[in-house]
Automatic annotation (TrEMBL):
Binds 2 divalent metal cations per subunit. Site 1 may preferentially bind zinc ions, while site 2 has a preference for magnesium and/or manganese ions. InterPro entries: HD/PDEase_dom, PDEase, PDEase_catalytic_dom, PDEase_catalytic_dom_sf, PDEase_CS. This is Phosphodiesterase. Residues 419-508, 618-644, 739-774 are annotated as: Disordered. Pathway: Purine metabolism; 3',5'-cyclic AMP degradation; AMP from 3',5'-cyclic AMP: step 1/1. The lineage of its organism: Eukaryota, Metazoa, Chordata, Cephalochordata, Leptocardii. It comes from Branchiostoma belcheri. GO terms for biological process: signal transduction. Its cofactor is a divalent metal cation. Keywords: Hydrolase, Metal-binding. Belongs to the cyclic nucleotide phosphodiesterase family. PDE7 subfamily.
Length: 774
C-alpha cells in the first residue's frame, strides 16, 4: 500500500485502482446515509471502488458478472479471516485496538480507520480478548454474520447509531476489566454483558418513547408504553441470535437463560428507571450488601455497569465528550422539529429554540450522570473511576461556563432590544450602536476553549420572538456587565419614571412595564412573573440566578421544562437585599409532581422544597414521623407581633421553626383555612410603614394570607402567590395579580392591608384580625 496525504492506493490490478480517501469515508453514523444503504453487509467504500473503478468497456451482462465475481472473491476473502479490516487501515486499526482497555480510547478514530465499522471490529476484538469464541465454541461465520447484522440494524441517527453502541461496548469492556467486578464474573456473564452492550440500542428510531406514544406508533402499543424502545432492542437482539443460530449448540435452557439475562440488562438502560437503580445501588453500598459471589448481585452490578456505560459520554475527554453532546442534541432537536410539524407537545430537551446544548448537558450531567458515577466510584474506587469523574467535572464546568455565557448574551440581547425599542423612531442609529445601550458592554467570554454552539439554536430572546411592543413611557434599561460577568441593571434616569411610581423608589423601576420587552409575555400572570424576574435582576446574586429567572419566565415552556429536569421543583426566592423576587429551581431529588407556585412549597420523596429567603434555595428533609403533608405548616398566633417566635410545624407534633419565606396555613376564625408566605425583613412600600396596623404587615415584615378556598391546592401544593413588591404600584400590582393571590393595598389612612384579589369587597373584615389557630 502506498500513501499520499489523505489518499492511499490500496492495490492495483489489471482493471482497477483501489483508492481510499480518508475524507470520503462514509460513516454509518452520518444521518444522511440512506436506510437502504445500511442494509449492505460490507463497507460502502468497497462497493464504491468496485463499481466506479471498473470502467472497462464490456456488455452490461459481462460487466455485471465480472463485478459479481470480483465481489464474491472479495467476500470469500473477507470471511476467511476474523477481521474484515481492509488492508490499508487494518494495521492502524489493529494497533488502536490494542489500547481498547484505555478509558481515553478514541472510538471516533476507530470508526474512521474501519470505514464506519467500529462496532463490528471492536466486537470481534472483544470476543477474542475475553476468549469467548473458544469458551463457547462459537462458529466464526455465525459470529461474523451476527455482528454484521447487529451493525446493519443500527439506524443512521445522529446519536443512537452503531457508533454509540461501539462506544458503550468499549466502556462496558473497561468496567469488565475492573478488578472488583471482572474477577468474579462467569464467562456466561461476560458474554451476556458484551452482547447486551453491543445490541442495547438496536434499531433505535432516533426518537424517544414519548414520541412513539404521542404519534400512535405500533411499538408503543405492542409494549404497552412500558420500556418500549428497550423491549424493541432486546427483541431485535434475540431475533438476530436466532436467525444466525449463533448459540444453537447450547441447550434450550441455556439459550433461554441467556436471552433472559440480555433482556434484563437491556431493560435496565431505560433512562426513566434511573432513580430506581441509583437508589438501590446506593442502598446496597450503604449497607455493604453487594456481595459479588451471589449471581443476583453480580447481575445487578452488570445492570449498573451497562447503565454507566450508556451514559458515560460526559466522562470522556472533553474533545470526545463534546462530539457526543453535539450528536445527542442534534437528535433531540430533530425530534422536536418533527413534533412541531405534527403539532404535538415538544418533548423535553427537544426544542431547538429553547434547549441549547449547554442547557441539556448541564442538566444531564447534574441529574443523571453525576449521581450514578459517584456511586460507581464508591463501588469501585479505582484509578479508572477517578479518571472518569475528573473528566466529568471538567466537562461539567465547561458546560456550566458555556451556559452562563449563553444566557448572559441572551439577556444582554434582550436589554439591547429593549433599549433600541425605547428610542424615538426619528433618532437614527445604525449597526451595533443601535443595539448597545449606554453603559452596556459585551460580556467577555470565559477563558476556556471556544465552546460548541448548537446548530440552529437561536437566542431565546432574539427579536424574532417578540410579541409585545413598547409604549412611550416605558423605562429604559441599561445593562452593564460587571467584571465578574454578572449582569446588573442600572437605574433608569429620572425622565423614565413611570406614572404612579413612587419617586422614593428610584432605586427600582416598574417591572410590569419593563416586562413588556420580554417577548414571551402573554397573559397577566406571565406579565407578573416577568416583572418579578426583571426586578430580581437588580439584586440577583449571580448570573446563574438571573438566568434561571429568565428561563422560568418563559412560561410557555417552563411547565414542560420543569418536568424535564428530572428532579428540580420550581420555587421562588426573595432576595435578601430587597423586596424582589427571583425564581430558582430547588433540587429535591426526584421528578416533581407539580409545578410549584410562587411562595409555595413542595414535597418530593421525603424532601421539602420551599420558597426561601436570603437568596438561597432551601430544601428540607422530612424526617420520618413528620406529616405526610409538609406543605401544610402551622404558624402560631404570635406571628403578627413576634415574628421570630413563629413556629412552624411539619405536623402538629413537630416543633420546627417556620423558615423565612416558607408556607404556613392557618385557620381564620375557625371558618376557613388560609395560607401565607412568610417573609422576613421585606421592606414595605413607604405607604405601609410596616407595623401592625394591618395584618399583612408586621414590624417591617410581611406575611400574606390567601384564602385557601380561593387559592386552593394543586395536588398537595398550596397556591400561595407572592403578591408584594414595592416596585410595582398597587394599582398595577392588582391589575396583574393572578386570581387567588393576595395583594397589599393602600387603605385610606395610607396603611396597607392584605387582600385577596378576588375578594375586594369582603376580605377587609377578615383582614382586620388574624386569629390563628393551631
Ligand atoms: N450527553 C448527553 N446529553 C443528554 N442526554 C444524553 C447524553 N448521553 C445520553 N443521553 C441520554 O441518555 C439516554 C441513555 O439511554 P439511551 O441511549 O437510550 O438514550 C440516551 C439519551 O437520551
Ligand atoms: Zn444507549
Amino acid at each position: 500500500m502506498q500513501r499520499r496525504g489523505g489518499i492511499s492506493f490500496d492495490r492495483t490490478d489489471k482493471n482497477a485502482l483501489y483508492i481510499r480517501m480518508l475524507g470520503d469515508v462514509r460513516t454509518r453514523s452520518k444521518p444522511d446515509l440512506g436506510r437502504e444503504r445500511r442494509r449492505s453487509s460490507f463497507p460502502d467504500i468497497d462497493y464504491k471502488t468496485f463499481e466506479e473503478c471498473d470502467d472497462s468497456p464490456r456488455s452490461n451482462l459481462r460487466s455485471y458478472t465480472h463485478r459479481w465475481k470480483r465481489r464474491r472473491r472479495w467476500l470469500n476473502l473477507s470471511l476467511q479471516t476474523v477481521s474484515l479490516l481492509d488492508e490499508a487501515y487494518s494495521g492502524q486499526a489493529r494497533h488502536l485496538l490494542t489500547t481498547v482497555t484505555d478509558w481515553d480510547f478514541d472510538i471516533f478514530m476507530l470508526d474512521k480507520l474501519t470505514n464506519g465499522r467500529s462496532l463490528f471490529h471492536l466486537s470481534i476484538h472483544l470476543f477474542q480478548h475475553h476468549n469467548l469464541i473458544q469458551t463457547f465454541n462459537l462458529d466464526i461465520v455465525k459470529l461474523t454474520q451476527f455482528l454484521s447484522l447487529v451493525e446493519e440494524n443500527y439506524n443512521n441517527n445522529p446519536y443512537h447509531n452503531a457508533l454509540h453502541a461501539a462506544d458503550v461496548t468499549q466502556a462496558m469492556h473497561c468496567f469488565l476489566r475492573e478488578r472488583k467486578l471482572g474477577a468474579r464474573l462467569t464467562p456466561l456473564e461476560v458474554l451476556s454483558a458484551v452482547v447486551a452492550a453491543i445490541t442495547h440500542d438496536l434499531d433505535h428510531p432516533g426518537v424517544n418513547q414519548e414520541f412513539l406514544r404521542k404519534t400512535g406508533n405500533y411499538l408503543a402499543t405492542l409494549y404497552n408504553n412500558h420500556s418500549v424502545l428497550e423491549h424493541h432492542h432486546w427483541r431485535g437482539c434475540v431475533a438476530l441470535l436466532r436467525t444466525t443460530g449463533l448459540l444453537n449448540h447450547l441447550s434450550l435452557q441455556e439459550r433461554q437463560d441467556f436471552e433472559c439475562q440480555i433482556q434484563s440488562l437491556i431493560l435496565a438502560t431505560d433512562i426513566s428507571r434511573q432513580n430506581e437503580f441509583v437508589t438501590s445501588f446506593k442502598q446496597y453500598l450503604d449497607k455493604g450488601d453487594l456481595t459479588l459471589h451471589l449471581p443476583a448481585s453480580r447481575h445487578f452490578t452488570l445492570q449498573i455497569a451497562l447503565k454507566c456505560a450508556d451514559v458515560s459520554n460526559p466522562c470522556r475527554t472533553w474533545k470526545v465528550s463534546r462530539r457526543w453532546s453535539e450528536r445527542v442534541t442534534d437528535e433531540f432537536h430533530n425530534q422536536g422539529d418533527q413534533e412541531r410539524k405534527l403539532k404535538v407537545d415538544i418533548a423535553n430537551s427537544c426544542d431547538r429554540y429553547r434547549d441549547t446544548i449547554s442547557r441539556i448537558q448541564t442538566g444531564f450531567i447534574q441529574f443523571i450522570v453525576e449521581p450514578l458515577f459517584v456511586q460507581w466510584e464508591r463501588f469501585s474506587p479505582t484509578r479508572l473511576a477517578r479518571h472518569m469523574i475528573n473528566h466529568l467535572r471538567v466537562n461539567k464546568q465547561r458546560w456550566n461556563g458555556a451556559l452562563a455565557t449563553e444566557l448572559a448574551e441572551a439577556e444582554a440581547a434582550a436589554a439591547a432590544v429593549a433599549f433600541a425599542e425605547s428610542q424615538p423612531e426619528d433618532v437614527e442609529m445604525s449597526g451595533q450602536a443601535a443595539m448597545d445601550p449606554p453603559g452596556y458592554r459585551q460580556a467577555p467570554p470565559p477563558g476556556n476553549d471556544p465552546l460548541p454552539t448548537s446548530p440552529g439554536v437561536e437566542s431565546e430572546t432574539s427579536s424574532s420572538h417578540r410579541t409585545n411592543s413598547q409604549s412611550d413611557d416605558d423605562p429604559t434599561t441599561f445593562a452593564e456587565v460587571s467584571g465578574s460577568g454578572d449582569i446588573r441593571f442600572e437605574e433608569p434616569g429620572p425622565s423614565n419614571n413611570i406614572p404612579g411610581h413612587s419617586a422614593s423608589h428610584s432605586g427600582q423601576w416598574d417591572g410590569t412595564k419593563l416586562c413588556n420587552h420580554i417577548p414571551f409575555v402573554r397573559s397577566p400572570l406571565d406579565t407578573y412573573r416577568a416583572a418579578m424576574t426583571i426586578i430580581s435582576l437588580h439584586d440577583a446574586p449571580s448570573t446563574e440566578d438571573i438566568l434561571t429567572s429568565i428561563q422560568l419566565d418563559r412560561s410557555d415552556v417552563f411547565h414542560s421544562k420543569l418536568k424535564s429536569l428530572n428532579g428540580p421543583v420550581l420555587s421562588a426566592i426573595v432576595n435578601s437585599s430587597g423586596p424582589t423576587l427571583s425564581a430558582r429551581l430547588v433540587d429535591v431529588g426526584s421528578p416533581p409532581v407539580e409545578v410549584l407556585k410562587d411562595g409555595g412549597c413542595a414535597r418530593v420523596n421525603g424532601t421539602v422544597g420551599s420558597v426561601c429567603y436570603n437568596g438561597s434555595s432551601r430544601t428540607t428533609d422530612l424526617h420520618s414521623g413528620h406529616s405526610a403533608s409538609p406543605t401544610a405548616r402551622t404558624v402560631s398566633s404570635q406571628e403578627c407581633s413576634k415574628p421570630d417566635d413563629v413556629t412552624a410545624k411539619l405536623d402538629p407534633k413537630a416543633d420546627d421553626k417556620l423558615h423565612h419565606g416558607s408556607c404556613a396555613t392557618s385557620r381564620n376564625n375557625g371558618t376557613h383555612d388560609r395560607i401565607a408566605t412568610w417573609l422576613q425583613n421585606a421592606p414595605f412600600p413607604p405607604s405601609c410603614n410596616g407595623g401592625s396596623t394591618h395584618p399583612g404587615c408586621v414590624q417591617g415584615k410581611l406575611s400574606r394570607w390567601t384564602d385557601i378556598s380561593e387559592a386552593g391546592f394543586e395536588g398537595n401544593i398550596p397556591k400561595a402567590h407572592i403578591a408584594y413588591s414595592s416596585t410595582i404600584s398597587h394599582e398595577q400590582l392588582n391589575s396583574t395579580l393572578p386570581i387567588g393571590a393576595t395583594s397589599c393595598r393602600k387603605n385610606s389612612d395610607d396603611s396597607c392591608r392584605s387582600e385577596d384579589v378576588k375578594m375586594d369587597t369582603d376580605s377587609s373584615a377578615d383582614d382586620e384580625q388574624e386569629p390563628i389557630q393551631h
